[in-house]
């Protein structure tokens, strides 16, 4: 979640190799070619192509070893790299038969793994670093299905300038207390394989899912659904959605999500509490929302300088939109823009999109994208939330030891659900030891996952910021300790994030936390809850600093239940979306405090890039009044200066010297810290001289403290779902408007009235039970 600094640029040409069995081939000459797809160079040699074929499927991890020729379920081709660079090997389905093939590339001489892909079907992309003349084996493995053949294509993008070799450590040995026994960070191909293998080995509990939108680089996004009857998706149970790796470098977020899948699957047979919760709910788990970005971050050589080519610290996806043409060349793992290519997916959702805390600049780490839901990854999450009654959502991130809830925008008053929402966050925090707070108290941000999902659907959504210090700490600290509640994690002895996720699943199962629709319908009839609406974004901030009007974003919620025959019970979100339901607040008890001016000392402090280790800074005390003198609902501490090349960082300390707010954003001419309902007392504005544009010409800060009165509670209109009933042929045979609130139970009776008139309703003929 932290701001990253650093820029740089280099360019990458493109060549190709032809993968033909047992033959070393150089790059072919380039003929005239059609326009290249996004993310590639304008011209390239034709891709190498071949067909892999084998007579049977054998479920095994293709990446685990280079297998002997003739091994069942395997087909391989030898290739030789014509250049030093990034090898890209793709598989694609061939013919109409369904199937699942995986691919792995090995160094032929030493057998070391170069790259692999284990997606849920046969659309694979394996990448890895190769050197000129290196002999390789491309190994295709038929995992499942009837497809006996698959198409193979290979290309090499030569490396130049800041080229960084791929890092693929040896596979981790089991031995931790995690449900999977894992002891090291996974690669993307391991996530892909384990997800589908959980479904294969536990078919009565787990089913594999593939989301509808492939990524910019063509990867499929996969996950699992866990329930007592996983294939019966339209059963009306409440749904908990768990998401990891929106941000590519936040590796623990995917690990915690993956361990949660193992926890529910393995614990179903050994833990009575887990078994009871799984029977009452559905869990949808997508550990890697952003596979393109993660594949780059996870395999990059570490640099740790946040420069343009520090690929390990890549945050965004791999979209090229918004960048100038010179920065769109090459694949994401070796491109002119480096890690700055792409969109920050957690600024791309429609909730208050375009406002503060997200950037309109393509090379900013917080780039929001050209429009709400412009990215396939966020559209995948939108699909899940819009077609399911997701009553609880957890988005996993690093870092900060926080449980975060909406809103993220300072000018958005909390929802009417604020007391219940806060209580839910506090219950999770009691297990993982984190601090529970609204997102805007970390820093202001717009376009975040739950700031869309909650305001549009009413389903509670929380972000867990895992760990205290860094995006991907050592595995034992950032994953094992944080999941299991072991030292040095804040949740040591409290259950950790395992217990926090179980608390969220218990909330999912609780009828008081969502709404319930009951009634009767003939077996096999499909009930549908539908609602369409438009919601404004924030006023849209432009790259030149000006502001345009809000955009109107259209949303459609459309979920279904397949009637079991007779009575049904459907766990749903409230019919009135929180955006229009109203806002939580309180009446002021005293006037608002007048603004205060903060005066900096006459001499600038020296530049300090190591605060708080180096405590040198300007310190300006001020006092916040309380009733009966003043009642302050909001306090804004702000500093500004002349040049965007200067940077002053702002911290606000309370009377005990604790930091209660900070703003350390780069490439700006101001910082501000906002505190809501600040306790009366003594505070200090601590201003750090992080960087001066010109050391010879002082660029001092000026500051102030502004206050606002608390805002009272307001109530808005109610909204209704449209509930319809369709017979097995898809014909509508009944419907009505349904208004239902959180914790309420509404009985709609015999909603399929037309079926009863035709002698097909409950109590008639074969439907009687």
Question: TL;DR of this structure?
Answer:
The chain is 15% helix and 29% strand. The protein is globular and about 80 Å long. It contains 11 helices and 36 strands.
Question: How does this structure look, described?
Answer:
The structure is a single chain. The protein folds into 4 domains: 15-158, Jelly Rolls (Sandwich), CATH 2.60.120; 188-514, 3-Layer(aba) Sandwich (Aminopeptidase); 524-583 and 716-767, no CATH class; 596-698, Jelly Rolls, CATH 2.60.120.380. Helices cover 15% and strands 29% of the residues. Strand 20 (540-541) and strand 21 form a beta hairpin. The protein has 769 residues and is of the alpha+beta class. The protein starts with 14 loop residues before the first strand and ends in a 12-residue tail after the last helix.
Low-confidence stretches: 1-47, 757-769
Radius of gyration, CA atoms, in whole angstroms:
28 Å
In CATH, the topology of the largest domain is named Aminopeptidase
What's the helical proportion of residues? 10-25%
**Biggest β-sheet strands, sense, barrel:** 8 strands, mixed
Number of distinct beta strands: 36
Give the C-level CATH assignment of the largest domain: Alpha Beta
Write the layout of secondary structure elements.
Elements: E1 15-16, E2 48-53, E3 74-80, E4 85-93, E5 99-107, E6 113-117, E7 124-130, E8 135-145, E9 149-158, H1 188-201, E10 206-210, E11 222-226, E12 239-243, H2 251-267, H3 272-280, E13 282-286, H4 291-299, H5 376-387, E14 390-397, E15 402-405, H6 418-432, E16 435-438, H7 449-457, E17 460-465, H8 475-484, H9 496-509, E18 515-521, E19 526-536, E20 540-541, E21 547-548, E22 552-562, E23 566-572, H10 578-581, E24 582-583, E25 596-598, E26 618-624, E27 634-640, E28 647-653, E29 659-663, E30 670-676, E31 681-691, E32 702-708, E33 714-715, E34 721-726, E35 732-738, E36 745-750, H11 753-757
Helix pairs in contact: 2-8, 6-9, 8-9
